[in-house]
Design goal:
By secondary structure, the protein is mainly β. It contains two helices and five strands; from the N terminus they run E-E-E-H-E-E-H. This is Single-stranded DNA-binding protein.
Length: 103
């Protein structure tokens, strides 16, 4: 993803997994749901508030969705190398079908 911090973007793909804010997996502690989206090029994590998740009940694994949101960019230094990691903080979602994704 070649976006800058706080760029507004729309992405689409299949939801591979949904991590709850109350997940026992300490690696993903968050006040938001975390969706892993696969757009057939790669995958990206999308953060969704509990309010948004309740408003869009189709935000579940194996669903094809379109999401609008803002890019969150994090730079980390691992060893001697700098790494850029991107995620999306979503504010809108649409349910899409597989045939719409491929057209």
């Amino acid at each position: 993803m070649e976006s800058k911090h706080l760029d507004e973007v729309t992405i689409a793909g299949e939801i591979l997994s949904v991590i709850s804010p109350t997940s026992e997996n300490m690696k993903y502690l968050s006040s938001h749901y975390i969706l892993e989206i696969d757009d057939k090029v790669g995958s990206i994590f999308v953060y969704v508030s509990s309010l948004m998740k309740n408003h869009y009940p189709f935000l579940e694994s194996n669903q094809f969705v379109s999401l609008k949101g803002y890019v969150n960019v994090l730079y980390r230094k691992i060893g001697e190398e700098n790494h850029k990691e991107c995620s999306i903080v979503a504010y809108e979602a649409k349910d899409i079908r597989l045939q719409e994704l491929s057209s």
